[in-house]
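Deliverable D2.4 — example input (structure tokens):
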């Protein structure tokens, strides 16, 4: 019986009756027997302590009054305006985040409050003009 490359008997008989396939052909075949490199190391082993790629500074909390100012400027504009002004003063003192929110609440609250006041003035003038015309 002729032995095929890569086949051998587990007891060492090259022409045995119970062949097994080996994972790699013998080292004398072309392409095998080259220099082998070391096994790759698992992450974090062998190279010292691994450092994170980025570190972020601790974040400052956002001023709650600034958030409320932006919300209330759409719900009830005068309250948003007042809360925005208060929030900007608090942010200057405490150094919290939310300066942009407070500024937006102040500006939008002022614009909507101005529109509201203008609407009330126009309605009052219209009522007075219609009452005097009768």
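Example output (designed residues):
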């Amino acid at each position: 019986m002729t032995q095929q490359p890569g086949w051998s008997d587990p007891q060492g008989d090259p022409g045995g009756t119970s062949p097994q396939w080996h994972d790699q052909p013998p080292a004398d075949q072309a392409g095998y027997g080259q220099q082998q490199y070391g096994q790759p190391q698992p992450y974090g082993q062998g190279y010292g302590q691994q450092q994170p790629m980025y570190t972020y500074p601790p974040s400052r909390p956002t001023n709650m009054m600034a958030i409320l100012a932006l919300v209330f400027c759409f719900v009830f504009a005068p309250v948003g305006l007042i809360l925005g002004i208060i929030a900007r003063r608090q942010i200057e003192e405490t150094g919290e985040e939310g300066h942009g929110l407070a500024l937006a609440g102040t500006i939008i609250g002022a614009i909507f409050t101005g529109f509201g006041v203008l609407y009330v003035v126009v309605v009052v003038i219209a009522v007075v003009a219609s009452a005097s015309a009768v």
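The chain has three helices and two strands.
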